[in-house]
Amino acid sequence: MIDLLRTDIQAEHPLSHLSEFSEFVLGDLVVEKTPRLFVIVEDAFAALPMGVLVPPTEPGDVPLGALSAVSVAPVVVSIKTHRTGVSNLDRKPFLGVGDSIYGASSAKERLDFVPVPLRETSAELRFMGALLNADPTEDFLLGLGAKEEVIQNLSETGVLASYDLLAFATHGFRGSEGKLTEPGLLLSESNPSSGSDGYLSASEIENLKLDARLVILSTCDTGAIAASDRGLSRLTQAFTYACARSQIVTHWPIDSAAAVEISRRLALTLRDEPDVTSAEALRRAVQDLLSNPDTARFAAPKYWASHAVVGGG
Questions:
Q1: Are 118 and 187 in contact (CB under 8 A)?
Q2: Burial letters 64-83, b for 16+ CB under 10 A, else e
Q3: Beta-carbon count within 10 A of 10 CB
Q4: Residue 233, CA distances (Å) to 54, 135, 174, 294, 311 in order
Q5: In whole numbers, what is the pLDDT of the chain averaged over residues?
Q6: How far apart are CA 232 and CA 226, in angstroms?
Q7: Positive/negative CA dihedral, 234, 239, 244, 247
């Protein structure tokens, strides 16, 4: 039934199974008494976009994603993190990574396909960074600066662990596309002498030294289930192991314009209320997206229900 629901959402079909599944999962949940909902999911239930469910006890068919701050985790131990000891005086608010640049020939050789460039991600990250007081000269890895070896160097020197929020706006893959054998994020083409291939794989992410309150993966399929896996993707788990206390991931390929709208709303909330949880920030972003006439074109669940919070930060 989860597959049927996901198919209906992405195809913008009537959600014929929504009411039945919402009642099965949520039962008599009273949202007023549950402003924050932390759900431990395993196996196929990790693929369920919780935010699209409609609490049977609530009037007006308002989705859970606009009513309650929902966080998910594959297992309890997945939210265990450690502090790296970076002084609060040395903390940095935001690092934006995106607008990756890669040649068609090298992408074809490395991936066996050529992804569509995501030029709009640079403006998305700049907007978020400006709201969160990022340094315009130091806190962005964009275009040719979005290289794997740069991120590895920031990790080794301890700089990466000083960032409270990291946002990756680039292509993410499940590891089953083309020649890929491992989930990861596509970055800009690396220098041949660096020994890097421009693909930040899950195993490489696991070894990064983070201490991030939130990692935003504004990419495709970062929380999805690969064909051979069960539960949340290894990419999502990799950032947890690297000490991201919470993540905002996506369940399926997302509309880039809708992702920008959600990211901007997230940044506004995080700026205005620095102590707000990631789940509550996403809830407010979805609520505003659905209630604002200017973004009515994104009202269908396919545009916003893909986003989910993993972890408890």
A1: no
A2: bbbbbbbbbbbeeebbebee
A3: 17
A4: 25, 32, 7, 34, 14
A5: 84
A6: 9
A7: negative
H/E stretch holding 95 reads strand 95-98
At 213, list the tokens. Answer: 């309150």
**If residue 40 lies in a helix (H) or strand (E), which one and from where to where?**
strand 36-40
pTM: 0.87
- The mean pLDDT value for 172-188 works out to 86
User: Which residues lie across from 36 on neighbouring strands?
Assistant: 69
- Sign of the alpha-carbon dihedral angle for 185, 187, 190, 194: negative
Q: Rounded distance, CA 196 to CA 156, Å?
A: 15
| pLDDT of amino acid 54 | 87
Q: Which of 40-44, 165-169, 223-227, 288-292 has the lowest mean pLDDT?
A: 223-227
List, for residues 198-231, the tens digit of each pLDDT value.
899 999 999 999 999 999 998 766 666 554 455 5
